[in-house]
Specification:
By secondary structure, this protein is mainly alpha-helical. It has 18 helices and 6 strands.
């Protein structure tokens, strides 16, 4: 996209702060007409909106992909083993060297550590090798029409129309992930409008074909999401056997001095003098990490706890940290058992969200509370011992 056009577009239309109505469902053709009307109200010509939407079709494979994210049901150790390989580490080191000048610029301008971006680049598209083959326009409008998250995807569909109006998006040929993300680090259209950066100096922002553009844009987005310059994000630690496990979890942040008093120590190097949360992804007998303020920014990129922790951990590996200590975690629950536990917790008044067998934030909090009530280590790791107490 031409940089001047991008500036004028954001300044005049103010697309990002827009609060669109969560209109969804109904006949797909009528839904597209409503989307066209809203685009026109934002200053897009009716002809442009028509041309964008004329080829858009509902894609049922997108809806199936949205409802079948089974990989996130895996525990952290399994998930991390699946995503992290020696090959990805080696390629990451090679990319760090190849794009050293770009990473230097990113760290100077945005304060985002290169290894953090390398980890996202690896996980999102395998360093650009596979960026997704879903038609992006179809995916965005299909998800906007679906009534699960219509407010989010309606805005993204409108942002895609804006990109099309500047010549930087082709609704017939632009492809990406099933959820509408585009390019090497997988950014949604709205994020491209707001944070797209011309990293290679050619006057356009091409996130699919230009690694400098994609990396610079990702760095700017992380800065805008609150990334704190020159601060760590995650550090592996060792923990004593007798501390208060109820203090673990991302919602409890304590000064580093408090963790040290309890016996928490860095496995490598020194602990940072920052508030931190103790994360025990598979209970008090498994791997242990301190999560610093920058770790919270990861959840602005992806809402899955397992994905976020794995991406943050992989970034530390790229920066030279050793493999985590596996420990001897208690056996977790199967998907069927997890759903059973979620139903039991829901019956007792806990908000665990959807009964999906995924150990999300709501389920973790409920498990931790119930463990405390039943005299079990309150480490938020659901086991058969807890399930059998219901």
């Amino acid at each position: 996209m031409d940089i001047l056009k991008q500036f004028v577009l954001i300044a005049t239309l103010g697309l990002l702060p827009l609060k669109t109505e969560a209109q969804c469902g109904g006949p797909f053709k009528a839904f597209k007409e409503g989307l066209k009307s809203e685009a026109v109200s934002l200053g897009i010509s009716a002809k442009t909106a028509d041309m964008f939407l004329s080829s858009v079709q509902q894609d049922k494979t997108v809806l199936r992909a949205d409802k079948a994210q089974g990989v996130f049901q895996k525990p952290f150790t399994d998930f991390s083993r699946r995503l992290i390989s020696q090959h990805r580490l080696k390629v990451g080191q090679s990319k760090a060297t190849e794009y050293e000048t770009i990473f230097n610029r990113i760290e100077k301008l945005y304060g985002v550590n290169r290894h953090v971006l390398l980890a996202f680049w690896a996980f999102e598209t395998d360093y650009g090798a596979f960026q997704g083959d879903f038609n992006t326009a179809n995916a965005l409008v299909t998800l906007a029409h679906d009534c699960r998250r219509p407010d989010l995807f309606r805005r993204q569909a409108l942002a895609a129309i804006e990109l099309y109006s500047t010549g930087d998006f082709d609704p017939r040929t632009t492809t990406g992930a099933w959820a509408g993300e585009i390019g090497m680090v997988q950014m949604l259209p709205e994020d491209i409008l707001y944070n797209g950066v011309d990293g290679d100096g050619d006057g356009s922002v091409r996130l699919k074909t230009s690694a400098p553009d994609a990396l610079m844009s990702g760095g700017k987005m992380l800065q805008q999401l609150g990334w704190r310059k020159n601060e760590p994000w995650l550090q592996e630690v060792t923990v004593p056997t007798d501390m208060d496990w109820g203090l673990s979890g991302i919602s409890v942040k304590l000064p580093i001095s408090e963790w040290q008093k309890m016996g928490v120590q860095a496995r490598q190097g020194q602990l940072a003098n920052l508030p931190a949360a103790l994360i025990l992804p598979e209970g008090h007998k498994g791997p242990a990490f301190l999560a610093y303020p920058n770790f919270d920014v990861y959840f602005e990129w992806n809402q899955s706890f397992t994905y976020v922790l794995t991406a943050a951990y992989f970034a530390t590996r790229l920066a030279g940290a050793p493999k985590y200590q596996l420990g001897n975690p208690a056996k977790g629950l199967s998907t069927t058992q997890m759903k059973q536990l979620q139903r039991e917790l829901q019956l007792r008044g806990y908000n665990v969200g959807k009964i999906d067998g995924i150990l999300g934030a709501g389920t973790r909090g409920a498990v931790q509370a119930e463990q405390g009530k039943r005299g079990l280590p309150a480490d938020a790791w659901p086991t058969e011992e807890l399930l059998y107490k219901f």
